[in-house]
Amino acid sequence: MIGSVTVVGASLAGLSTARALRAQGYQGRLTVVGAEHHSPYDRPPLSKEYLAGTLDRAELDLLTPEDDALAADWLLGRTASGLDTEERAVVLDDGERLVSDAVVIATGARARQLPGPALAGVHTVRTVDDATALRAELVPGARLVLIGGGFIGAEIASTASDLGVDVVVVEAMGVPLAGPLGTEIGQACAALHAEHGVRLITGVPVQRVLGADRSAGRVRAVQLADGRELPADVVVVGIGAAPCVEWLAGSGLAVDTVSGGVRTDAYCATEVPGVVAVGDCASAYRRCAGGPTRLEHWTNALKHPAAAAATLLGAPAATSADHEVPYFWSDQYGARLQFAGHRLPGDQVEVIEGDVDAGNFLAVYRRGGEPVAVFAMNRPKPFVRWRRELASRATAAA
Amino acid sequence: MIHVGALADIPVGEAIRVEADVPIAVFRVDDGADGAVYAIDDTCTHQRASLSDGWLDGCMVECPLHATCFDLRTGLPDGPPAKVPVRTHQVVVMDGMIYLKLAEHSGEPEVEVA
Q1: CA-CA distance, A382 to A364, in Å (whole number)?
Q2: Looking at chain B, which residue has its C-alpha nearest residue A297?
Q3: Per the CB < 8 Å rule, is A384 touching B53?
Q4: How close does chain A come to B81, measured CA to CA in Å?
């Protein structure tokens, strides 16, 4: 029986693991290390309600009065710089070593940055501090260029446009969101930009961001690969996230070469006994994908930790990751987008309900005739039924 | 009291949304008999989502956005992400018609003023 656990990462995955450990009867010492100075908070509103100013800072807090019962030592504003797997010691940036019986790796991911010098007015949005800084610059009439037309880019474009900001979205690929959703559905989502007066430029990569003083000072424009210059007062870089795993270098833990995440089995176990990984930084085996998959989904960070806690406590396997159908949602321009399942290139997509042009439809992805994923725009009720249907198929196949 | 409509218009196991001062979700739960009727605030206390679109399982409804389950009898959430109960409303079924008496207070704990 383990008597001490160190959780590295104080966001949704770390907090959910702490809660799951206590819920499953763990009574030992619990230490949670967080790189940010904030106690756990919810990130999805950072590009939406919080950025819009309709949700205040206190409403982002994830901790409830019941969480006092976690009796955890919160080490906030402290960064892990190494893991000594032999001693199971987490080494902090000031050299302190936290030795415990078990370690939970929940360090999440960080926003990818553009190469080149940092210019004032160029933002990424991952943390509440990022969102607060961006919000201060989204004043009516400001010219915002979003680099990247993915979910974060589209959500920020939508929020900024509501705030009276003049928005342009630049997407290097021919169709935004074609990666996760496929061309047809990506196209349907992209149409929302134009319908709300936001200009979308596709198929052209960004060359560089130009500063007032050529390469320094405040941003003044974004230069595209075809030479065009888009004037900008504010730039948001939304080109994805990378797992925070550098601190594990030399620990001997396997990192997935494709996704960059810490390799685990379906129950969050790494190759080192007593060390588990959860959330955005983990690349867990999933049957639906037939291999390791790193998910940056909020639901994965909420649900997967129950399996990690069971693994550490030697309890019978809790619901494993592959029983959970991956799920995410996005709110853009008043439309609710929901996706569940695992899509691969080549899957056949068919709109089976509603009308794409009316912005209200449900589409099913099939592989070899079998449904493998579902997407809905403004159709939550049938979507919920399909999500359950996919989950029960996954369970039946297990 | 708010007149919702005929009981027969809500199939057992289904829900409708009623536009009152705030939207209200009215559920007809499969109780092995005639179908018990419950009413709660339609909007999830966590984030914008309509609970009448949710998955009904017995007396629990699962939010269609983040899957917190609310008990239709008490309004209590079963776990995160929702932290606050939804308001429950009194239902009266009379002569095959459904009526609501809306609760006065929000589901949030009242703040005590010193």
Answers
A1: 11
A2: B66
A3: yes
A4: 8
Question: Domain A334-397 adopts which CATH fold?
Answer: Enolase-like; domain 1 (3.30.390)
Please tell me the distance from the alpha carbon of residue B18 to that of residue A40, in angstroms, as a whole number: 36
Band (pLDDT 50/70/90 cuts) for residue B5 is: very high
Sign of CA dihedral A374, A379, A384, A389: negative
Query: Which of B44, B46, B47 to mutate: most A Cβ within 10 Å?
Result: B47
- Give the domain A113-239 fold: FAD/NAD(P)-binding domain (3.50.50)
Note whether A299 contacts B66, CB cutoff 8 Å: yes
Candidates A384, A386, A387, A390, partner chain B, best to mutate (most B CBs within 10 A): A384
- What is the C-alpha to C-alpha distance for residues A16 and A10, in angstroms, rounded to an integer? 9
Q: Do domains A4-110+242-319 and A113-239 have the same CATH topology?
A: yes
* Residue among B47, B48, B64 whose CB faces A381 most closely: B64
For A339-389, the pLDDT digits (tens) are 999 999 999 999 999 999 999 999 999 999 999 999 999 999 999 999 999
* Chain-centre distance for alpha carbon A253: 22
Topology (CATH level 3) of domain A4-110+242-319: FAD/NAD(P)-binding domain (3.50.50)
Beta-carbon separation of B54 and A384 below 8 A? yes
Q: Measuring CA to CA, how many Å separate A66 from each of A22, A69, B47?
A: 12, 6, 20
Band of residue A215 on the pLDDT scale cut at 50, 70, 90: low
